Amino acid sequence: SAVISQKPSRDICQRGTSLTIQCQVDSQVTMMFWYRQQPGQSLTLIATANQGSEATYESGFVIDKFPISRPNLTFSTLTVSNMSPEDSSIYLCSVLRGVTGELFFGEGSRLTVL
Amino acid sequence: AQRVTQPEKLLSVFKGAPVELKCNYSYSGSPELFWYVQYSRQRLQLLLRHISRESIKGFTADLNKGETSFHLKKPFAQEEDSAMYYCALSGRRSGAGSYQLTFGKGTKLSVIP
Predict the structure, then answer these.
(1) Residue A22: is its pLDDT beyond 70?
(2) Neighbouring-strand partners of residue B90
(3) Alpha-carbon gap: A60 to the closest alpha carbon of chain B (Å)
């Protein structure tokens, strides 16, 4: 298994501000993923972050709104920029281990935008 | 495009009753399917995967390619099974070398004592 730590675990933010979520993994991983889970909805992949290359964003998500950093094989950040109440959600960091497709998840960062 | 459908948002059963959480998928290639579970105040974690053909905590799931289904079953529900269950499908995007796991919307299982 993988130990994944996310910070902050929750935050309340004002409209128009930005928040950076950190994800720390206890061992080196190639692929890290950022998901969003809106209230009553499923998990939606925002982007895939590979070390040494730019993040790959899914349809509906853009770098200007969700800039991602991946400075090394154990760490990544996701920034939610210029927040609006629609960005209120749980943001989850996850990593892929091995070739069997199992994802390990952080505990999530619950973001509320007023 | 890959899609996962879980038709039930909420499923309530009595303790000891059989449980079946439905999952249907849409995928053009050969799918890899998973069930993830999230217990109260815990992180999302893998419950089982179809390639393992294993039983975890009494749960099993059989991939039915003809019906494009991967229903999760347990013959006798326990109170500790109460949780949120997500069906997920994985697929590698051709030429991209990347990986995508698509989740269903989840089913909340409530086991009544």
Answers:
(1) yes
(2) B32, B101
(3) 15
pLDDT at position B93 over 60: no
For tokens 């969700």, the residue is A66
Instruction: Tell me what pLDDT residue B95 has.
Output: 46
Q: How far is A79 from chain B (nearest CA, A)?
A: 21
* Mean pLDDT (chain A, rounded): 91
Provide long-range contacts, Cβ within 8 A and 24+ apart, for A48-52.
A48/B98, A48/B99, A48/B100, A49/A76, A50/B98
Would you call B101 and A45 a contact, using CB atoms and an 8 Å cutoff? Answer: yes
Report how far residue B63's alpha carbon sits from residue B72's, in angstroms, rounded to the nearest whole number: 10
Pairing status of strand A10-13 against strand A109-113 = parallel
Nearest residue, CB atoms, B49 vs list A31, A41, A100: A100
Amino acid at residue number A48: T
CA count, 13 A, side-chain hemisphere, B38: 18
The DSSP bridge partners found for residue B92 are B99
8 A C-beta contact, residue B58 and residue B76:
yes
For residue B76, give the nearest of B11, B14, B18 by alpha carbon. Answer: B18
The nearest CA of chain A is from the CA of B35 a distance in Å of 10
On chain A, the residues whose CB falls within 8 A of the CB of B98 are: 31, 48, 50, 56
The secondary structure of B47-67 as a DSSP string is EEEGGGT--BTTBEE--BTTT
Q: Check CB contact of B106 with chain A, cutoff 8 Å.
A: yes
Alpha-carbon span A2 to B57, nearest angstrom: 21
